[in-house]
Specification:
198 residues, lipopolysaccharide transport protein A fold, six-stranded antiparallel β-barrel, 1 helix, rod-shaped, LPS export ABC transporter periplasmic protein LptC, membrane
Length: 198
């Protein structure tokens, strides 16, 4: 073989080895990149993904009218359970057919569909007297509000004042749409005497 051919053969071999190393490096880089993307997808986020301070949220009914509003000191979204955690919540019903009702608590959790509101610690519910309903006040430490059905329930002790009546019990279910009230156990009631009619 001539010297020129040997030089060309060495140069071609060197270029081929360099090209193979470059392709191998690109392939290895792509494998590492894809593994990193898949690992990032596999890692679930456990920290809140957003929060709002001093907020006011209005839930609309299907007919376009305001159904209720929730305000609070801080709202935090939990991406793992897709729920909202609220500090110092205040829930106000905005029904045109019924007397307005307001609920307060130390904290709350709202599910992803916004149709269940869980109130925790120092829960107080108030409804002023109206021509259609007596004054209503409720104290408990846990309450579930099913907003679409207008139902409130708890399995914990409750203290209620309805008009001039005082009710205590453990476990309660109230249907605000029908006006039904059910106390489950350990019920104690103080009812005012009926006024005489002539």
């Amino acid at each position: 073989m001539s010297t020129a051919r040997r030089g060309r053969f060495g140069l071609v071999t060197l270029i081929l080895i360099g090209a193979m190393m470059a392709l191998g490096s690109l392939w290895l880089l792509e494998v590492v990149r894809r593994a990193g993307v898949e690992t990032a997808r596999a890692v679930k986020r456990t920290e809140p993904d957003y929060y709002v301070d001093n907020f006011n949220y209005v839930r609309m009914a299907e007919n376009g009218e305001a159904q209720y509003n929730i305000s609070g000191k801080r709202l935090v979204h939990d991406p793992v359970t897709d729920t909202h955690l609220i500090d110092q919540p205040v829930v106000n019903s905005l029904s045109a057919e019924r007397a307005p009702m307001s609920a307060r608590a130390d904290r709350a959790r709202v599910d992803s569909n916004s149709d269940k509101v869980y109130l925790y610690d120092n829960v107080q519910l108030n409804r002023p007297a109206s021509p259609k309903a007596d004054y209503f006040h409720l104290d408990t430490d846990y309450l579930v509000m099913l907003t679409d059905e207008e139902i409130m329930e708890t399995d914990r002790p409750v203290h209620m004042v309805i008009g001039k009546s005082i009710l205590n019990g453990t476990g309660m279910k109230v249907n605000n749409a029908t006006g039904e009230l059910h106390l489950a156990s350990r019920v104690h009631a103080v009812l005012p005497p009926k006024t005489a009619t002539r």
